[in-house]
Write a structure and sequence with these properties.
Blueprint lengths: L13 E4 L6 H9 L3 E4 L7 E6 L8 E9 L2 H6 L4 E8 L4 E7 L6 H24 L10 H7 L1
Parallel strand pairs: 1-2
Antiparallel strand pairs: 2-6, 3-4, 4-5, 5-6
């Protein structure tokens, strides 16, 4: 299947995003740029399982699948394979589902990275509340340090 984007894999960045930022075309651009992403899929995203990978349920991982998007628009937006991981968090007793284009990292590491994303969110919430900052004036490291 031909894709819209020419895939070259120079980058190794990892983007961890909330599900509200789900945009399959954007994910495919990241994939083609050589970046990786981890997010929770919206419940409306249809995925077709290609095969199951072995899991160690003692780690909290319930399933690890190689999948394709399913649906005319979604296949066009993201024509490559994805990985769907279902994880049971023992602390919160919640079952979470993640999608990623990283096929190398272990499934429990993917889940731990997503959990760490929440700590970053809490940090920015603390900064906004206690330092009375609604937004940053710049996005470079120097601009943020200067403002803080």
């Amino acid at each position: 299947m031909l894709t819209r984007w020419t895939c070259s894999r120079p980058s190794r960045a990892l983007h961890i995003m909330d599900r509200r930022y789900q945009d399959l075309e954007r994910f495919h651009r990241l994939h083609c740029a050589g970046s990786f992403f981890v997010t929770r899929p919206k419940t409306s995203l249809l995925l077709r399982r290609i095969r199951s990978l072995p899991v160690d349920k003692a780690t909290g991982v319930r399933s690890d699948w190689i999948v394709h998007t399913d649906g005319v628009k979604t296949i066009k937006a993201y024509p490559d394979r994805l990985r769907r991981i279902r994880f049971r968090d023992v602390e919160t007793k919640k079952t979470l589902i993640f999608i990623t284009n990283d096929f190398v990292l272990p499934a429990q590491v993917i889940a731990a990275l997503y959990k760490a994303r929440w700590q970053v969110e809490l940090f920015f919430k603390w900064v906004k509340q206690h330092l009375h900052m609604k937004s940053f004036f710049g996005t470079s490291e120097n601009a943020v340090k200067t403002q803080v």
